[in-house]
């Protein structure tokens, strides 16, 4: 036990004396949150749109007004002489335009069928899809609002309601995932170089002739980094919350508790990598490769796990972010409590023990 | 447990097809100062690393302090002190922090450790430099510090791999005086060196060449046996590539 304490103390000296690295440790996660947060923001807003209003009635103008004021679009005007749809799109650089033929106001009042035109530039697929769905929603709301009160629309009506993220804002979904990726990556990076550095500098040679066991060395090295990674996590969470305004429904202390388990698991991965590779550079590359890719592809960050082939689903079980994502999304967006998330925490703790056990087994007390 | 500090029996270490240590057998008594000589690449460091438990032999056996080098390396670590050829202390820690860290790994208690650090600082004239970041010390002082770390826990056997390389002559003398003092209190000193004048300070020396032990004995006896003018002369003759004759003779 005393040995562990002194190894931890020594490791703390290394961390605190390397001032540049210390800055990187705290600046990098914040910068990454910022960059990833904006880069992966999937909400498409501020789409250029134009219109051709041949009806030119108060009703048609109201519809256009409604669409443009929805917040998703802005108007890019085009010269009124143009009539060819291709030309209009090209001249206005719009993602699409709305064509209101004469008779819109009349059809609205009499209820006869009427075809409203929406011409979309299909070359930008995701933007086109957004134009389609947004304008559909807006049009439906517009039509519903115009129905006189107390009247009912005949036929079956589908009532849609989205819970937890009512606007289906992707940031609410992605920001917790970004937090999960950054914490995993940074933590694994931190510890991945610790033993590799001692190998590279030759200090391991002296350490290995001293009567310390692999368990003492690895646990001693791990402890100071738990503090650092935990603080990093706190920083990233606060920053993400402030920057992206993600709602926070559940208990913050509970999330911090889970964060502690999560970063310790990530640090254990770093330690495991460190025992296996000879140089710091290689250690860092492995740490990035082994944390980023599986987290993005297999943790449920981008793709739903239940839609994956069975082998990938099994692999997702040993990706720590799989569990942390459920925790952080659960706590932040749904307000889930400890009882609901305890199994996730249990699995995560098991993974941590597994990685540490493997690292201790792998750690060679001999050189060469 | 036998009486010898170091006992090596047909020790061999190969790296791929290269045999660094070839069938090495020797024994070193307790309290002896044993000079382990050989040209660069002769296999000295590899042999020392095997004795300290840092490397496993390809074949052969050995004991250090009576403990088996294959199976009891943890017990050996408590018995020995080791000074590497290359500076292996933490360069970002001060001398005192390095000494204190290693002292603690040997479970020395606080007051014993403190007194021991003062004692060593005095013996090695390190006091002035002990609170400086060790990586920034001049080579000579780094070597003193490394020696201090190797003996912080008063080991019964010390392995010193080129301890005086790059150290000035005045300090080499201090170094050796310290080794003599240690040997007098029963410590076994197993030391490699390039300096032939230092080899003469040793009770016995061995000479390794291309992984093999070519000669072992007391320095003076060896000089007589080989009818050499001095140790250096004998050393050069022994390790000269076979078939090459010295034109001057």
Automatic annotation (TrEMBL), chain A:
Domain ABC transmembrane type-2: 140-366
Keyword set, alphabetical order: Cell membrane, Membrane, Transmembrane, Transmembrane helix, Transport
Membrane topology annotation: Multi-pass membrane protein
GO CC annotation, single: plasma membrane
Location of the protein in the cell: Cell membrane
Membrane-crossing segments per the record: 21-40, 173-196, 217-240, 252-274, 286-305, 337-360
Domain of life: Bacteria
Pfam entry (one): ABC2_membrane_3
GO molecular function: ABC-type transporter activity
Sequence similarity: Belongs to the ABC-2 integral membrane protein family.
Protein name: ABC transporter permease
Species of origin: candidate division GN15 bacterium
Automatic annotation (TrEMBL), chain B:
SUPFAM superfamilies, sorted: P-loop containing nucleoside triphosphate hydrolases
Pfam families: ABC_tran (PF00005)
Superkingdom, taxonomy of origin: Bacteria
Molecular-function GO term, any one: ATP hydrolysis activity
Chain ranges of the ABC transporter domain: 6-235
Keywords: ATP-binding, Nucleotide-binding
Record's signal peptide: none
Keyword Lipid biosynthesis appears in the UniProt entry: no
PANTHER family the UniProt entry points to: ABC TRANSPORTER G FAMILY MEMBER 20 ISOFORM X1 (PTHR43038:SF3), ATP-BINDING CASSETTE, SUB-FAMILY H, MEMBER 1 (PTHR43038)
The name this protein goes by in its record: ABC transporter ATP-binding protein
Taxonomic lineage: Bacteria, candidate division GN15
